[in-house]
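During the no-cost extension, the postdoctoral fellow (Dr. R.K.) reprocessed legacy sequence entries with the updated structure-token encoder. One reprocessed record is reproduced below for audit purposes.
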Amino acid sequence: MTFRTSIVAADPQRDALVLQRWLADPHAAYWDMGDLDVDAVRVYLAGVAADPHQQAWLGLVDGVPTFFAETYDPAQVLLRGIHDPLPGDLGMHVLVAPPVGESRHGLTDAVFAAVMTWCFDELGAQRVVVEPDARNDRIRRKNLRAGFTELRCICIDQGGHAKTAVLSVCTRDDYARSELAAVAAPSLTRTGIPA
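Re-encoded structure tokens follow.
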């Protein structure tokens, strides 16, 4: 199955409602934002948009909002003082919308591949850095399939509560050689991406 993906800058006014619904779903529990109402999500997105060291993105599959991604400079946001960054490091988070209707085999692989390709090709990353919750086995398995190497467990302060995370990194070459790139790349069609 082919998925046409595009990624645009998230807009706090346009996207707060849909993102709030995704965050409130149990599958997004590791984002720890399920209790936010629409106004709080709008404020959160506006804060990300105002910060020169991070960006929020809305991803569409076949023209339908389907995923949310964040990118950030790990030397300035979240991992400051925890991670020893290299030039070209780019932090990343991704959230796929909760499933609705009939399952679409390969969708999450295609979304993850689109985000990784975006990070490397559009944003110029030399290495993508992630810090999934250590208990989130599902995303950790996806990261490994995408070529990430788990470095070590770290403790991240997230607004007054600590998260034990697994610091992981992936170079462009790591991703190109990964199982996920081999499986997802042929089914991924990238459409024109609006500025």
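The longest strand covers residues 161-171. The chain has a mean pLDDT of 90. The remaining legacy entries will be reprocessed before the final report is submitted.
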